[in-house]
Amino acid sequence: MSSRDRVLGRVRRALADVPRDDTPYDRAIPRPYLREHGERTAEETVELLAENLADYRAVVHRCTEDELPSLIGRLLTERGSRSVLVPDGLPPEWLSAADATRVADRAASTPHELDTVDSVVTGCAVAVAETGTIVLDGGPGQGRRRITLIPDHHICVVRVPSQVVASVPQALERLSPTRPSTWISGPSATSDIELDRVEGVHGPRTLEVVLAGVIPSVGGAGRPEGSAASVGE
């Protein structure tokens, strides 16, 4: 008896009590998973995201939509970036105050060419507060996966509160299973057996996350995420 015959024999014996007219997945399996841990306001959810991003050694900045161009320009200047990678669909006003040379994301770009670019600026698809994670799915303003892995400095803009969810299950509900996604929790880092931390092995050594927008208050006036605040520096 061949190995194939033995395996198929075990399968037949395991299915001996299954009715012949039974079909797979003929009924939905209840999956009452916990979707989030506790109840939070929109402001509390954004605060949790900022705390967890900083815990992963990302640098967190806050600003209103109007302040976003000047903030991005300042971050690129402080970094000394002479060139910035621009994914297709990135709002042009985001870089209106930046002096760095724009480098368009091209499918023909080689890893060596991307490695010569100082910074990359992207948006995101969604951000997860409980895990301090930003998710990119290749949509407008996000680009292909490698543009956020090769340049050493990544500035990612998260619109708050609209792009922030509490948990991973809630994030998955917003993502298409047919699109490739990149989940980023802090700058790239790894540790050897002696726990010596090395940053930049698998991606950017510096991740700066800009939380841009106004969080509606209970009274309806709204609270801007003032640009003076930076966490994790």
Question: Which regions are unreliable across 5 or more consecutive residues at pLDDT < 50?
Answer: none
Alpha-carbon distance between the termini? 67 Å
Order of strands in the sheet with the most strands? 3-2-4-7-12-1-15
Largest sheet: 7 strands, mixed
Helical content (DSSP H or I, runs of 4+): 10-25%
Q: In total, how many domains does the architecture comprise?
A: 1
CATH class: Alpha Beta
Q: Over all CA atoms, what is the radius of gyration?
A: 23 Å
What fraction of the residues are assigned to beta strands by DSSP? 15-25%
Overall structural class, as computed from helix and strand content, comes to: alpha/beta
CATH H level: which superfamily? NagB/RpiA/CoA transferase-like
Summarize model confidence as the mean pLDDT: 89
The sequence of SSEs as H and E is HHEHEEHEEEEEHEEEEEEE
CATH topology (fold) name: Rossmann fold
Name the overall outline.
Answer: globular
Helical stretch count? 5
Task: Give the second-level CATH assignment, the architecture.
Answer: 3-Layer(aba) Sandwich
